[in-house]
Amino acid sequence: MKVSIITVCYNSEATLEATIRSVIDQDHPDIEYIVVDGNSTDGSAAIIEKHRSTIAKLISEKDEGMYFAVNKGIAQATGEIVGMLNSDDFYANNQVISNVVGEFQSKKTDTVYGDLEYVSRDNTEKIIRHWRSTPFDPKLFLKGWMPPHPTFFVKRKCYEQFGNFNTSFSISADYELMLRFLYKHRISASYIPQVLVKMRTGGISNVSLSSRIKANREDRRAWKINGLKAGNLTLLLKPLSKLRQYFKKN
Q1: Rounded to whole angstroms, how far apart are CA atoms 241 and 233?
Q2: Sign of torsion, CA 195 141 215 74?
Q3: How many of the other CB atoms lie within 10 Å of CB of 183?
Q4: What's this model's pTM, rounded to 2 decimal places?
């Protein structure tokens, strides 16, 4: 199975090399690597050029934000499976894509996801938090659950059938897409109980209390625009008081 991996970046010279290397070092023989650069002004372009021969498609131009850029990448993808790897992230080992493809083939599923580790931005050997997911049950969304999006691989036909990322969301477009695919349209999913991706801390949705509050609000709106009722769900993530406690501790 051909797999399209999309990396979106902008001024990511500090981390981009590790991201690219983790893709091109994969042992799966059929990977289409797509890089979408927002016209970076740092050394990102030089890093991309260094690996240009292993990048199948490169888009380098200004865009209106991360999710606009991701949608550009999806439009260029020709693989049966599509995965995203942000420029702060890297695969846990070089068998990740092979294991994901094996899961798609054995389970005949539409999506595959796994576990994720948050690691220190300055020392990627230091694990900050382990995001251990769980076998899929759509009812888990009612408890505030979601798969770790960087580990989320989807058959391209699902984007064609149910749409791409909703760019009216500035932080939670990934949540809205998974809610739409997995809960609203009930496409099939399979869980690999392994760490697939390592994410450096400091991402757009967890960098501050204010951004977490905004993400909470956007998560709520994701239910509304999809015509879904959250039942007795009072908050999709954490109450404001618990969010404040979390950021005081961390």
Answers
A1: 17
A2: positive
A3: 19
A4: 0.89
Q: What is the dihedral of CA 192, 193, 196, 200, to 10 degrees?
A: 140
C-beta separation of 22 from 83 below 8 A: no
- The CATH superfamily holding the domain 3-207 is Spore Coat Polysaccharide Biosynthesis Protein SpsA; Chain A (3.90.550.10)
Distance CA 142, CA 102 (A): 30
Confirm if 36 and 114 have CB atoms less than 8 A apart.
Answer: no
- Condensed to tens digits (0 to 9), the pLDDT of residues 108-155 reads 999 999 999 999 988 999 999 999 999 999 999 988 889 999 999 999
Query: Which residue bears the tokens 């501050």?
Result: 208
Report helix, strand or coil for 96.
helix
One-letter-per-residue 3-state SS of the chain? CCEEEEEEECCCCCCHHHHHHHHHCCCCCCEEEEEEECCCCCCHHHHHHHCHHHCCEEEECCCCCHHHHHHHHHHHCCCCEEEECCCCEEECCCCHHHHHHHHHHHHCCCEEEEEEEEECCCCCCCEEEEECCCCCCHHHHHHCCCCCHHHCEEEHHHHHHHCCCCCCCCCCHHHHHHHHHHHHCCCCEEEEEEEEEEEECCCCCCCCHHHHHHHHHHHHHHHHHCCCCCCCCCCCCCCHHHHHHHHHHC
